[in-house]
Amino acid sequence: MLEGARERLRMDNEPKESIDPRALKVWMIGGAIGSAVLLGIAIGLYAFVTAVYGAPAWVGWAIIALALAYAPWGIFLGPWLRMRFWRYEVRENEIEIQHGIFVIKRHLIPMVRVQYVDTEHGPLMRYFGLTTLSISTAATRFAVPALPKQRAGELRGEIATLARVSEEDV
Amino acid sequence: MSDYRRQHPLLILLDIGRGLISNVSFALIIAISLPDDIFGGFVGNMIVGLLAIFGLSALYNVFRWYFFLYRYEEGLVHIRQGVLYKKERTIKRERVQSMNTNANVMQQAFGLVTLQIKTAGVSVDAEVNLRAVSKGEAESIKEHLYAKGARSATEPVEVPKSSRFLQGQDVWLAALTSGRFMVLFSIVAVIYFQVFEYIPQSYLDQAVESLSTIPLVVGIGMAVGLFLGTWVLSAIVFVIQFANFSLRRFEDRLEISWGVLKKNHVIVKLHRVQAVMVQQGPLRQPFGLCTMLVEVAGGGAKEQEKVSLLHPLIRRKDVDGFLEDILPEYRLPSSSIALPKRALRRYLFRSTVPVVVLAGAVIIAFHLLDLPYSWSSLALIVPAVLLGMSRYRNGSLSVDGEQLSLRFRYVSLMQVLIKRSHVQSLTVQANPFQRVGRLRTVQASFLSSPAGKSHSLKDLDACDAQAVWDWYSRN
């Protein structure tokens, strides 16, 4: 029964391509920074609560414990799950993107609905030579993060060519 | 028609009138802040203040009116406006997405309308407002931007393919079942509680004393009376807003008009219609009534530009005929896929958990404040369970050729009909619990005003979700 559940926890027919493994490093660093900030805030709150409000010490320690509890999630579990589930596939007629950590979403975007394609990157991604590919329809925007810069550029060109938005479509 | 024209000079008065309240308060502020002896006391200050403010306002509006020029010819409209910063804009027929007219009471009195021409885009620059032109002029401009080829007076007026009106007693039926009074009632209640604080204690004591001599029945009667009063009031407001409702289907567009005090006329090009919705609110569903709505793309962000009401009141059994007449491109599905039994648990969970948490919080709070009757909040659980069950039973989906139909309930029962070509993307998602239970949530995104929107159905069987995926896929 456990085996069946494990299989069902994956969603079958996942899209083929995964994103660059270096993304894991980026997310882990991001998670570490986030945890550090959270810890800093927690320590500050501890000082504030005990010094100013004179609350018992255990309240302060509880706050710090909560902040520390975020760390394994933000640094390890979260990025690993995100990496595990982020998938994409560019076919001639449509694009499929899957992503998520807890709630897994799978998007199907017909090529004729693609309005424009962007590439963008933040400082951390750029350091690793990674880019985010952003695909927009008339209604929503979808992202495939952490692709090697060259691959992102290739895909952008490929999708731009394949996307033919016809006259009658809104 | 290539000479430049101005809007009707009455616009100056209307604009001054629009700023009346703020102008008067400005004058008041000036009057208060000036020392008393300059113009002869407060009254003198006030008069001078009013004169100054209104004088400036009049001057400003005269200039604005004078420097707003427009001209139009076959296929385009050209605007030139601005006193210091001049702005010129040309709008060509191809770029026009919609043309609406509306007229408030003052405008109606003088036979004027506001003509609003909108192009694609949300920014202020994307539209042109001619705020005081005669009805005939507005029609003339619309015709020039409308069809290719001049229409001469001898040609027959275009006849609508079909039309629907909201007649006499139906207006009242719609008004009484609109459910808007709930909003009004809550506003009234909020105001009441705000005002409560400011009533002097002595009045309150007096009131409580006199009230306590009134039997409980009368007290309840008063509350019921207030409720009914708000209901009737909101119904009257509705009637004033929606009387004279008419819906006409032409070859390539829908024309909808409504209103008594403020007359609105909206033109929706058919290709902008993205989805049709049948909405059955809790007051209408028991009587077999519903409202027809449309999702329209390319509108602006302002309230008046959201064309969403297609018809305020249709009988549920007439929806088929309505769609055949007005929007034959859409039809009610003949069969649909229901939710699997294991989804019921999740729907009940979603509807009852917030209520349980709320009841828990109320009980704890009441306990801390020493108030009685905290257990009554648990009574909310019963309707929550019923709502969850209703949502489960009503949830369904159908793919029928080119059309996807989603049926769901939050409070009102909604049925969305959308064509595959208008679905911008399809998303199937599942949280870990859904994945273990082989359930999926299906979400269709489409274009609406002002931005994209989506509708979804939760906890559909994974195989059925796959069927929708395959239907949408182009492989």
Give an account of the 3D structure.
The complex is a heterodimer of chains A (170) and B (475). Chain A is α+β, with helices and mostly antiparallel strands and 170 residues long. Chain A has two domains: 20-83; 88-169, PH-domain like (Roll), CATH 2.30.29.30. Helices cover 51% and strands 23% of the residues of chain A. Chain A contains five helices and seven strands; from the N terminus they run αβααββββαββα. Chain A has helices spanning 2-9, 22-52, 57-85, 123-127, 149-162; strands at 17-18, 87-90, 94-99, 104-110, 116-120, 130-136, 141-148. In chain A, α2 (22-52) packs antiparallel against α3 (57-85). Mean pLDDT of chain A is 83; it is low at 166-170. With 475 residues, chain B is α+β, with helices and mostly antiparallel strands. Chain B has three domains: 10-146, no CATH class; 160-332, no CATH class; 341-390. In chain B, the strands form four sheets. In chain B, strands 7-6-5-11-10-9-8 form a seven-stranded antiparallel sheet. In chain B, strands 14-13-12-18-17-16-15 form a seven-stranded antiparallel sheet. In chain B, a hairpin with a 7-residue loop joins β6 (112-119) and β7 (127-134). In chain B, α2 packs antiparallel against α3 (41-66). Chain B is globular, with a radius of gyration of 28 Å. The two termini of chain B are 53 Å apart. Mean pLDDT of chain B is 83; it is low at 149-155. β4 of chain A pairs antiparallel with β19 of chain B.
